[in-house]
Amino acid sequence: MYTVEQLEEFLKREGADFELIRQDVPILSAQDAEPYYDAARAAPTFVLQSDRGLVACVYSANRGRLGFEALKSAFGFGKLKMADRKKVLKQTGYEVGAIPLVGLELDCIFDDALLEYDYIYGGTGDPLVTLKIAPGDVARLNRVIGRL
Questions:
Q1: How far apart are CA 60 and CA 44, in angstroms?
Q2: Closest listed residue to residue 143, CA positions, set 114, 115, 120, 109
Q3: Quick check: 57 and 78 in contact, CB under 8 A?
Q4: Would residue 70 be called left, alpha or beta, if left means φ above 0 and alpha means ψ between -120 and 50 degrees?
Q5: 2, 9 Cβ separation under 8 angstroms
Q6: pLDDT tens column, 59-104
Q7: Where are the alpha helices (DSSP H) in 48-98?
């Protein structure tokens, strides 16, 4: 688990194209994001429970809801659902709602629709800091096991 400062050091060391955006309140909706960034470029990180353990999914907010059946079929999972909040916190050290775009020690499914943007916005592990980052860096810095 990274602090925001450690995440920033990691991203600099890896040559990522990024910026940290500090806000006064957590971003919990598209309306909350408006003063800080274009919510259409939001890329939440979901943690899913599969039959092979926890899996991260960096997903375009423009797609709407996750299609669990399609994901199961596409990636060969026997079971797939949202992971339990307590399990996510215990295994990753992060609260649901503040899951970082990079730095998780989990396999990851990456949504290639995010590559159409120069930058995307997502979590840092701190609910008061948003990560603005080139989507190719997100794909490069995660253990991507599949792409949508």
A1: 7
A2: 109
A3: no
A4: alpha
A5: no
A6: 998 888 888 999 999 999 999 999 999 999 999 999 988 899 999 9
A7: 68-75, 85-92
